[in-house]
Design goal:
Residues 1-30 form the signal peptide. It is an enzyme of class 3 (hydrolase). This is Matrixin family metalloprotease. Residues 318-428 form the Bulb-type lectin domain. By secondary structure, the protein is an alpha+beta fold. The protein contains 8 helices and 20 strands. The protein has helices spanning 39-42, 58-69, 76-81, 101-113, 124-130, 181-197, 259-273, 299-308, and strands at 10-11, 13-14, 134-135, 167-172, 202-205, 212-217, 236-239, 249-252, 320-321, 325-328, 331-334, 340-344, 350-354, 357-361, 371-374, 380-383, 389-392, 404-407, 413-416, 422-425. The strands form 5 sheets. A 6-stranded mixed β-sheet has the order 1-7-8-6-4-5, with helices on one face. Strands 9-18-19-20 form a 4-stranded antiparallel β-sheet, with no helix packed on it. β4 (167-172), α6 and β5 (202-205) form a beta-alpha-beta unit.
C-alpha cells in the first residue's frame, strides 16, 4: 500500500502566521477565511521585518521556529512523520535568539523556495509571505530527500509516486450540508476537469473500487494523526498516489464551504493526489501558500503534471484531433482523402498544407512552441515546454467540452462542439 495511515502521505493547507510558529502542529489545512486574521495574529511578527545577521531577541526566535516548522532545521516531529526527511540546513543556530550564519542560510533557502529575492534578510516581503496561509508539508521534501539549493531548476516539485494508469475513477463518499449536493459535485468535478484539460488523465465516477474518494469529515475520522480540529483550523488533506487511502481527498466539514472556495481547495489537493508537490511560482495552484479563490491552472502547474505524465494521447485514424489528443514536432493530422495535412512543425508553427502549398498557419514559427493540445475544455492550444500558451483558438468553455478538431476533405479545419455547431474554423474552404 503506497499511501496508508501515515501523515507523510498527505499534503494540506495550514494557516500559519509567524506568531504561531513555535507551536508545531502537524494538522492538515488552512483556515476557511483568510480575511479574518485579527490584529493579534497580523501584528505578532511585525518586529521581524528587516532582521539580518547579528540581530538578537524574541523576533529572531520566531523566525527560527517558523523555519524549523517547515523543515529547515532539526525537528523531531517532522522526522517521525516524514520518512527520509532531513533538515534543509545541516547546522543549527548556536542560539535560537541570535541571527547567525546558520539562520541566514535557512532564510536564503526559504526565499529561494518561495520565489523571493534571495537576500538572507527577513525583509518586508519575506515577512509578508511568512504571514500567509500555507501548506504544512515541509519545504525541500521530495523523497528521497532533495539536496537544498538556491538554484532551483524547476519551480514545480513531485510528491510520492505516480499512478500506473491515467484513467482514474472517483467516488463521493459523502457531502457537506453547507450548500446543495449538486453544487458540491460540480465544484469538485470542475477541479478534476481542469487537470484533465491539460493532461492525459480521464476521470469516471464509480460507486466502489475507486482510485480517489472525496469526502467531508469532522474530528478523528480514521486517519492516523490526521484528526480535523473544527472551524478555522484544518481545512482538507490529500494522499499521494497509491492503493488504500492513496489519492483520497478529505475536507473538514466543520468549515463553512462555498462552491468557489471548495473548487479552489480541491484543485490544489487533486494536484497532490496526482503526485505533485509545491511550486516556487506564487500564482501557481501548487504554490505552498494560499492566496485566495483561484480555479485556473497556471504555466508551472501544466509543466509539473507533464513532468510526471503524458500531456496528451496521439491521434489515430484520419481527419481529426479528439479531446485529449495532441501533436508534437513533425506530427500531422491528414484529411481522410489524403489531400490536406495539418502539421505541427519543428519550428513551432502549425500549418495546413494542400500538397506542398500552405493554406493557413498559426504564425508561431520561432515562438518556442513544444506541443499542440486539443484540450478537453474545447480549446486548441500550442504550448511551450514550460507550460506557457503560445497560441490558442480561445474556445474553452462548458459548451465546447469534449469538442474535436476536424481536417475536412474540403480543406477547412473546423473545431466542432460536442453537441454540434462550429466553435472555430480556419476558413480555408473550399478546394
Amino acid at each position: 500500500m503506497a499511501s496508508t495511515n501515515r501523515f507523510d502521505s498527505r499534503l494540506a493547507l495550514f494557516l500559519a502566521p509567524l506568531a504561531a510558529a513555535a507551536s508545531l502542529a502537524l494538522v492538515g489545512c488552512a483556515a476557511d477565511d483568510v480575511t479574518t486574521l485579527g490584529d493579534e495574529d497580523a501584528v505578532a511578527a511585525e518586529g521581524a521585518a528587516g532582521l539580518g545577521l547579528g540581530a538578537r531577541g524574541a523576533d529572531v526566535r520566531k523566525v527560527y521556529e517558523y523555519l524549523r516548522r517547515y523543515g529547515y532545521f532539526q525537528n523531531a516531529e517532522l522526522a517521525e512523520h516524514y520518512p527520509d526527511w532531513t533538515p534543509a540546513v545541516s547546522r543549527e543556530p548556536a542560539d535560537p535568539e541570535l541571527f547567525d550564519e546558520a539562520l541566514e542560510e535557512g532564510v536564503r533557502l526559504y526565499q529561494a523556495q518561495q520565489g523571493l529575492p534571495v537576500t538572507g534578510i527577513v525583509d518586508a516581503e519575506t515577512h509578508r509571505i511568512m504571514q500567509m496561509p500555507r501548506c504544512s508539508h515541509p519545504d525541500y521534501y521530495d523523497p528521497p530527500s532533495v539536496v537544498p539549493t538556491l538554484d532551483i531548476e524547476n519551480p514545480y516539485t513531485h510528491f510520492g509516486g505516480t499512478w500506473s494508469s491515467t484513467a482514474l475513477s472517483y467516488k463521493f463518499a459523502n457531502y457537506t450540508s453547507d450548500f446543495a449536493q449538486a453544487s458540491v459535485r460540480s465544484a469538485i468535478e470542475s477541479a478534476l476537469f481542469s487537470w484533465t484539460s491539460i493532461s492525459s488523465f480521464s476521470f469516471s465516477e464509480v460507486s466502489s473500487g475507486e482510485n480517489i474518494s472525496f469526502g467531508f469529515y469532522t474530528g478523528s475520522h480514521g486517519c492516523t494523526g490526521g484528526a480535523f480540529d473544527g472551524s478555522s483550523g484544518v481545512l482538507a488533506h490529500a494522499y499521494s498516489p497509491g492503493s488504500g487511502l492513496g489519492g483520497d481527498v478529505h475536507f473538514d466539514d466543520a468549515e463553512s464551504w462555498s462552491s468557489a472556495f471548495l473548487e479552489t481547495v480541491a484543485l490544489h489537493e487533486v494536484g497532490h493526489a496526482l503526485g505533485l508537490g509545491h511550486s516556487t511560482v506564487s500564482n501557481a495552484t501548487m504554490y505552498a501558500y494560499y492566496t485566495g479563490t483561484d480555479t485556473q491552472l497556471e504555466d508551472d502547474d501544466r509543466a509539473g503534471i507533464w513532468s510526471r505524465y503524458a500531456s496528451y494521447a496521439s491521434p489515430s485514424g484520419c481527419g481529426s484531433l479528439n479531446a485529449g489528443q495532441g501533436l508534437s514536432a513533425e506530427q500531422s493530422v491528414w484529411s481522410c482523402d489524403g489531400r490536406f495535412q495539418l502539421k505541427y512543425q519543428s519550428d513551432g508553427n502549425l500549418v495546413l498544407y494542400m500538397g506542398s502549398s500552405p493554406l493557413w498557419a498559426t504564425g508561431t514559427n520561432g515562438a518556442g512552441g513544444d506541443r499542440v493540445l486539443m484540450q478537453e475544455d474545447g480549446n486548441l492550444v500550442i504550448y511551450n515546454a514550460s507550460g506557457h500558451p503560445v497560441w490558442a483558438t480561445n474556445t474553452p468553455g462548458t459548451s465546447n467540452r469534449y469538442a474535436n478538431l476536424a481536417v475536412q476533405n474540403d480543406g477547412n479545419v473546423v473545431l466542432y462542439r460536442t453537441g454540434g455547431g462550429v466553435a472555430w474554423a480556419s476558413n480555408t474552404c473550399c478546394h
